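Hi everyone, sorry if this is the wrong subforum. Our group has a chain we'd like a structural model of before ordering constructs, and none of us has done structure prediction before. Sequence below.
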Amino acid sequence: MNAEKEIKKLVEDVLAHMGMDAAVSCRPDDGAVFCDIESPDARLLTARDGEALRALARIISTAAKKRGLPKRIRIDAEKYLSEREKDLEEKVLLLAKRAKDLSAEVPLKPMNPYERMIIHHALSSVEGVKTESRGSGKTRHIVIIPEA
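Answer:
Right subforum, don't worry. Here is the predicted structure as tokens:
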């Protein structure tokens, strides 16, 4: 069985144990495996900023690693992560403009490592600003800094 099929089975098994009726599809994605979950119960995974979805991804990644499967696994439910990424990118572009216009640092709220990575990447090609992560643990956040 190939990696995508094994990971798909892991996701399906965990969701079944959670009592969720779901369709799961997995595909290779730039050295990782991306799985998409479609379910009428998807809100259980996406509530509270996708906390359960991130936990599911950690569980599946741990189980996959023990089986010698790819380490990087991304799991989305009903396009939640895709939409969240798009929203984050749009918001930080506006905040970058604000940082440049005001010539002042703009701190963002604390967020998880994945969201910080999205923001760093989104602003890496924006002229006139740079990003920096500050704080630690649950208070770790990004600051958008105008360049002189």
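For your construct planning: The mean pLDDT is 92. Residues 43-66 form the longest helix (24 residues).
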